[in-house]
From TrEMBL:
One Pfam family in the UniProt entry: IcmW
InterPro entries: IcmW-like
Keywords: Plasmid
Descriptive protein name: Uncharacterized protein
Domain of life: Bacteria
Length: 170
């Protein structure tokens, strides 16, 4: 099973090359969604933020634990569609499907993979696909994550500036 440090490194990989100190969401009204306040509305705001043009850099300035919650919370409908596609295709077809996504969709794919890692960690995938598909799906995950640059297990320099490079390998 995938450990917490692995998940943390994966989240850090999404943050690679992004500006870490940005003056966003410091006022309480930034955390309000539909008139509600509290942890859930904060997660909703973070999820919405990632759809904005400069959202990734702004998102990376937020506490990592809240970031992870937001990533897991977002795009539930699209993730369900991706899971259905995975259940309908063999491993190599799914790997090809992920590799051939347009560049603008790469960040979405990273989000889906992160959620998928969490599901594998909690052994929930067998509830969706049946236990006989679990090994094949884990193999597909290994194939697709080989294309992602994982941040080294050293402290990141949070003063780095986003240079526009994608935080994953092609």
């Amino acid at each position: 099973m995938i450990s917490n440090p692995d998940i943390e490194r994966f989240v850090a990989s999404i943050s690679l090359n992004s500006a870490a100190v940005l003056d966003v969401m410091r006022d309480t009204e930034d955390w309000v969604v539909d008139g509600e306040e509290g942890p859930q509305s904060k997660i909703n705001v973070l999820a919405q933020l990632l759809h904005e043009p400069d959202g990734l850099a702004r998102f990376n300035a937020i506490d990592p634990a809240l970031r992870l919650q937001a990533i897991l919370h977002m795009n539930a409908h699209r993730f369900t569609i991706l899971l259905k596609a995975m259940s309908d295709l063999d491993t190599s077809s799914v790997a090809t499907l992920l590799e051939n996504q347009p560049a603008s969709n790469n960040l979405y794919i990273l989000r889906y993979l992160l959620r998928f890692i969490m599901m594998l960690r909690h052994q929930m995938v067998d509830d969706i696909f049946g236990i006989e598909r679990l090994a094949e799906i884990k193999n597909m995950l290994d194939i697709t994550t080989q294309k992602i640059t994982i941040v080294p297990q050293t402290e990141r320099d949070d003063s780095s500036v986003d240079n526009g490079d994608e935080p994953w390998s092609n």
